[in-house]
Amino acid sequence: MRPLLDLDPRSLVVLHLIERTGSMSAAARELGWTHPAISQHVKRLERSAGCVLVERHGRGVRLTAAGEVLGRHAAEIAASLTSARDCLPDLARGHTPRLRVAAFPTACATLLVDAITSLTGSQVDVRQAEPPEALAALADGSVDVAITFHDEPPRGATILGRDPVLVAVPRGHALASQEAIAVQDFGSSTTVIAGCPVCQERFVRHCARESFQPVLHHQVTDDYVLMQAMVAAGQGVAVLPGLSLAAHRRPDIVVLPLAPPLYREVAVSLPAKRAIPASAQDLLNALTRLASTALHMPMGRPWSGPPHQDRTD
After folding, report:
1. Which pTM does this prediction carry?
2. HEC states along 135-186?
3. CB-based contacts of 77: which residues, under 8 Å, 6+ apart?
4. How far apart, in Å, are the Cα atoms of 212 and each of 107, 156, 219, 256, 280?
5. CA gap 149, 245 in Å, rounded
6. Which of 89, 138, 196, 268 could make an S-S bridge to 146, C-beta 3.0–4.6 Å?
7. Could you tell me the pLDDT band of residue 304, with boundaries at 50, 70 and 90?
8. On the CB side of 36, how many CA atoms lie within 13 Å of its CA?
């Protein structure tokens, strides 16, 4: 059996960066190294592995099949090193390392801020990030916790609950007196403010299942304060997630359920293959408690695949 340190962790990190950036030059720029230094690490790693790990591809390079296998291990090592590096400033001051969290904006303003308040003795750094960016940060070791939303959460995530999409209309609007608003109720004369491009796409797909095509407002935004202001000003009706209304709600609009319902699953992901800070589990417990009242159909259970029930999206 070869000695463990035959595989230089620095060379493995170099391999990971080559895979992520697609070239040795880009990996060199990210590390602040020269191109020859990167090449030397690759050659050293290939000698240790006994096979070719990197090959030319077009104008760049790519990993061989063997390189991809080693690259998966390299990614985990790079993430662990990133997490360890971020602990050092707090440890040098004699403090417990702070918990690093990435969460989508409405979760930051509602569930997360309340959960952090309930923690004692923990310093928390919060990064606002949409789900893809939050999960990428979790994978590369930049954060310890990712709070995200999905149609189907990542395997292994804990589902906090379902956040329903609601309809906001001006007070006095013809639809304001209804108990719920069906997508067909919008008709061809009602302009719908549907949020960001992803939110618009989800809403349009939802309407298509009901054989309806909404008239979308030209404004594309994920600013839920602005969307409510536009509704109050009579520029249309808005479809927006329930958590956004918990963070801010104007008194001059009426909010009603959408029929059939549309929702997003709110989930929490922790690192799968590296040390989890005790405060991360404490935060998850606090989020689960808060979700029992803040979210529709709270769950607080690990996600292992689609449930055996009809889904609206």
Report:
1. 0.81
2. HHHHHCCCCCEEEEEECCCCCCCEEEEEEEEEEEEECCCCCCCCCCEEHHHH
3. 9, 12, 13, 16
4. 31, 35, 21, 19, 44
5. 16
6. 138
7. very low
8. 0
